[in-house]
Specification:
- The protein has helices spanning 15-28, 33-48, 71-81, 109-120, and strands at 55-65, 86-93, 98-108, 125-134.
- By secondary structure, it is of the alpha+beta class.
- The chain has two domains: 15-50; 53-134, ACT-like. Chain A, domain 2 (Alpha-Beta Plaits), CATH 3.30.70.1150.
- A four-stranded antiparallel beta sheet has the order 2-3-1-4.
- A hairpin with a 4-residue loop joins strand 2 and strand 3.
- The longest helix is centred in the N-terminal third of the chain and has 16 residues, at 33-48.
- It is globular, with a radius of gyration of 19 Å.
C-alpha cells in the first residue's frame, strides 16, 4: 500500500491459541497470519477506543429478567435520561422471564460509558454487551 509504513513486531502466542487459530483460518480461507493479526488489532482498537475519548456509534445489548423488581421501568427511565445518545431500542421477549434489549446509541464516549454504567447497576440486568466503534 502506497503511503503506509509497516513495522515488524514479535509476539509470543501460546501454542493452543495458534492451533485453534490455524483451524479457523483454514475453515474460512484466510491465508495470511499477519493479516489476521492486523484485523484482530483493528477490532481491539475499535472495540476499546470508545472508552477513552471521542464520539461513538453502536449498540448496547442487555439481557435481563423482566420479573425482577421494576427493571423494565428503570431501563426505560435510563434511556430517557440519555435522549441525546439513544437513537432507538428493540425489545425481544426470549421466554417467560428473560428479555433482550438492544439500544442503538451515538454520541460522546463519556456519555455512553455513563449510560452503560447505569444500566449495569439495575437489579435484574444479567448481562450487558457492547458493540461500539468510533464515529466515522
Amino acid at each position: 500500500m502506497v503511503g503506509r509504513r509497516s513495522m515488524k513486531v514479535g509476539v509470543y502466542i501460546p501454542e493452543d491459541i495458534v492451533e485453534k487459530l490455524s483451524v479457523i483460518m483454514r475453515e474460512v480461507g484466510a491465508e495470511s497470519f499477519s493479516r489476521v493479526v492486523q484485523e484482530s488489532i483493528r477490532l481491539y482498537i475499535a472495540e476499546h477506543s470508545w472508552r477513552t475519548h471521542g464520539d461513538v456509534v453502536g449498540a448496547v445489548g442487555v439481557l435481563y429478567d423482566h420479573e425482577a423488581g421494576e427493571v423494565d421501568e428503570e431501563l426505560t427511565d435510563v434511556q430517557h435520561r440519555f435522549l441525546q445518545e439513544v437513537v432507538s431500542a428493540i425489545h425481544v421477549h426470549l421466554d417467560e422471564r428473560n428479555c433482550l434489549l438492544i439500544v442503538v446509541v451515538r454520541g460522546a464516549a463519556s456519555n455512553i460509558k455513563e449510560l452503560v454504567g447505569r444500566i449495569e447497576k439495575i437489579k435484574g440486568v444479567k448481562l450487558v454487551r457492547l458493540m461500539l466503534m468510533p464515529k466515522p
